[in-house]
Each structure stands twice: as structure tokens, then as C-alpha cells.
Amino acid sequence: MMPTLRTFVGVPISPALVRQISGVRTEFRDRTIRWVPELKLHLTLKFLGEVEESQIVSIRTALRNALLEIKGFHVTARGLGVFPGNRRPRILWVRLTAPELTLVARQLSSAVEPFGIEGTTKGFHPHATIGRWRSAVHRGRWLQSEMETWKDRKFGDFPIDEVTLFQSTLRPTGAIYSVLEVFPLKRIGNHPVRTEKQKPEVSKTH
Questions:
Q1: Backbone dihedral region of 153: left (phi > 0), alpha (psi from -120 to 50 degrees) or beta?
Q2: Considering the chain, what percentage of its residues have pLDDT values greater than 70?
Q3: In this structure, is the dihedral angle defined by the CA atoms of residues 100, 75, 188 and 7, taken in order, positive or negative?
Q4: In sequence order, what are the residues at sequence separation of 6 or more whose Cβ sits closer than 8 angstroms to the Cβ of residue 64?
Q5: Phi, psi values for residue 92, rounded to 5°
Q6: What is the pTM of this model?
């Protein structure tokens, strides 16, 4: 059996935006949530799943080519949401929006489809997971009311000037993210979109 790597393509959330989102931890009226460490907050653009290690070089090349003409852009973080729903939620997330996100996700999906990875972007809902409930206890109307107070809260904007291919290693204490490759995006005009960068809690893999 060929060795595999669990991988995804994503973007770490900028430190400035992480600081704005961190207020949810103290303001959200539910103490049964296990919060995601701030250095692990990220946007997943394409989950690749388990891929054969022998394919990684070719996948990196395909992703690099898919992103060659993509310009850097800004993303807005606004409002909270839950998966799968308010009755028995498991995941709390921040909504991330930008017209370019669907295009980028589509480009990435098309790039990896030849490797047997599902190429559809159906169900793509850009977000950053910030917490997980420890158990799927019924919350119903209380949570629906709480979510109403957060649905239009704007946390801020952050720039995307590069996209990262990560390896995700599952451990009992949580996933460990290793950087396989960083793909810079094109500058907007003569000016880079980059500002303060997040230093994700990762190990570098060459």
C-alpha cells in the first residue's frame, strides 16, 4: 500500500483579524465550546484528503500553475455560523466573503481533478472554524437567538497574497499543520497586497 499524506490548500488568518475574532471567546454565551488555538485559524480553499505521497510533486506543480494568473485580494470576515445547524451544533465558524474566493476554489478543484480528487466546488462555504462543541447537546431556540446577535458583526478584512498547501497530521491533541509549499499570488498593479502576516502553528516540510 502506497504511503499517503492528508492535505489541504488554505490560507492562515492574519494576526490582526485573529485579534478581532478572539473577542468571541469572551462574549459568546456558551462555555461548552472547545476553542481552536489562534495560530491554527485558517481558511480552507480545497480539502484534498489522503493523497499518495508519490503524487505530491505533480500536485504541487498543478496547483502552482492554477494560481499563476490569480491576483491578490482582500477577504471580509463578518458574522458567525454553525455546522450542521442550531439544534445540535458541532462547529462554530466565522463567515469569510470575497468575490474571488469561488473562482480560486474552482481553479484549485480543476487542477487536482486529474489526480482522482473530487473536483466540484458544490457546498463551498468559505469560513474559518473557531470552535467545536464538546457534545451535540440540543440547544435550539437559545442558540438561534444568540446567533442573531452575531450574524452581522464585522470582524475586519485581511489580505490574501499567497496560498499554502498543507499537510495535516491528526494527533489526539489536535491536528498538526506542515507547510508543503507556498504559492504567491500576483500583485495588484505595482503594489503588493501583503500586510501583517500570520505565523501559523506549523512545521516546515521541504
A1: beta
A2: 90
A3: negative
A4: 181, 183
A5: -110, 130
A6: 0.88
